[in-house]
Predict the structure.
Amino acid sequence: MVSVKKDMNAVLDAFEGYIKPMGRTYDAWWIAVTSDVMKSLDGHGVLSDDSCIHREVDSPSAARNVRRFFVAQGMDGNLDQYAPGDSFVYAYLKAGHTKP
């Protein structure tokens, strides 16, 4: 996977541009930060055809700020969970087979 780091505002715009057209409210989504997106999505039980988005942000603190923004908007997410180097933000549409 090739990654291009983005600033926080670009990631906020990308997430909103992906999520809003689906017509679902924010509380239908889970958001988190990680250093390994695929491992984290797999750990949540997200399947390849599930709706999800992820971006690498330019710093771990920016990743946490993106998560904090969307949790404040109503997304589910654990604000206390992070590790140094967690510069990826990901969100997925919760389903019966996914687990936060």
The beta strands are 29-34, 52-56, 88-93.
